[in-house]
Amino acid sequence: MFALLLAGQAVHAADTPLTLTVLHKKNIYQTNLTATINIPPDKLFKLLTKYNELYKFSHLIQKSELQTNGSLLLELKSCFTFICFNKKQMMRMTVSQYTVIGTIIPEQSDFSSGWARWKISKLNGHSKISFKSEMTPKFWVPPFIGPWLIKQKLKEEALSSIHFIENHTKQN
Questions:
Q1: Is the pTM of the predicted complex or chain greater than 0.85?
Q2: Do 130 and 113 form a contact (C-beta atoms < 8 A)?
Q3: How many CA atoms are closer than 13 Å to the CA of 25, on its beta-carbon side?
Q4: DSSP class per residue in 23-74
């Protein structure tokens, strides 16, 4: 998700180490996140590729739907204090062993360009997930407060999603 408006930081919630960096330059947001999730890689990969159920693990995703052409539609909702944004991402999906890459389809999205990559590796019986993205929104984001807000929202969402996933796998 440049001009270093935001530096990376390590956060620890319970036993979930997470590192997140959000950078911003010329309306392009770069995100780099790594986290350890207390489930095996094969289970995590299976959950991440259940495209029609991604909304179960994220407060931001209101709807996730795999299209007949293999593209993924995500309808997103994000609120900061009392202001909410509804945005749409349509992505071409590429999947290989423990790696999922989505490339924005600008004509069908609220982003003029972008991509996201999730890569899972094994770490002491758990999963290490590496998420990288680069997004250029078609909508206006306040230049001074926007990157900070995006970073806070992503950090909150990442920790929440990890806990949802870990709790889901304990129940099943």
A1: no
A2: no
A3: 5
A4: EEETTEEEEEEEEEESS-HHHHHHHHT-GGGGGGG-SSEEEEEE-TTSEEEE
Under a CB-based contact definition with an 8 Å cutoff, are residues 14 and 38 in contact?
Answer: no
- Which strand ranges, in their side-by-side order, compose the sheet holding 16-25? 9-13, 16-25, 28-37, 126-137, 111-123, 99-104, 83-96, 71-80, 61-66
Widest CA span of the chain, in angstroms?
A: 44
Rg (CA), the chain: 16
Sorted by where each starts, the structural domains of the chain and their CATH numbers stand as 9-145+164-171 (3.30.530.20)
Percent of the chain with pLDDT over 90: 45
| Encoded tokens for 140 | 């206006």
Burial degree of 84 (CB within 10 A; 0-12, 13-18, 19+): exposed
pLDDT reported for residue 170: 66
Report the 10 Å Cβ neighbour count for 144: 7
Structure tokens at 57: 């693990």
Q: What would the pLDDT profile of 44-76 be if each residue is shown by its tens digit?
A: 999 889 999 999 888 889 999 999 999 999 999
Place of tokens 């992505």: 91
E strand or H helix that includes residue 156: helix 146-171
